[in-house]
Amino acid sequence: MTIFLNRNIGGMKLQVLLKALKALADGNRLRLLRLLLDQPRCVCELQAALGITQPSISKHLRILEEAGLVTKTRQGQFIDYQLAAAPDPADQRAALLALITPWLRADPELQDLSRRASGLKREQLCRSEAQNATENASSRNEVRAAASSGD
Q: pLDDT by residue (tens digit) across 36-48?
């Protein structure tokens, strides 16, 4: 089996191709790719658009990133995720993305998702997340203080 996994296909190792195909074999990851077709987005935007938890979004983004389909860059206080640009013309991951892009753009469910996401305001979403985290930390500190004063 290892012999086959190390073969090159069009300049790309089969292992790389398998990793990319496995990354594409998930509905949430395809939804993420559809959203990233429109523009780079932060985790808060992706979470609000898809309605799934932040840890789940992060897991899916990590899988897409490890497969070489997505990259991330820091933009001030935000970390933006975007589709990976193929640095090498022999890299077939760009061909895979080009192959699935028409389907991602044409699917009615994904079109609706894209429309909903276009109305999201990053600054409001991320501020809300930061406020929630601060409020949760404050509540935990109050509980700890009350517990330690009761000792």
A: 999 999 999 999 9
Model confidence, pTM? 0.74
- Between residues 150 and 31, the one the model is more confident about: 31
The DSSP line for the chain is -HHHHT-EETTEEHHHHHHHHHHHSSHHHHHHHHHHHHS-B-HHHHHHHHT--HHHHHHHHHHHHHTTSEEEEEETTEEEEEEPP-SSTT-HHHHHHHHHHHHHHH-HHHHHHHHHHHT--HHHHHHHHHHHHHHHHHHHHHHHHHHHHT-
Query: Does residue 87 register a pLDDT over 90?
Result: no
**CATH fold label, 2-120:** Arc Repressor Mutant, subunit A (1.10.10)
Query: In percent, how much of the chain has pLDDT > 90?
Result: 52
Where in the chain are the domains? 2-120, 122-151
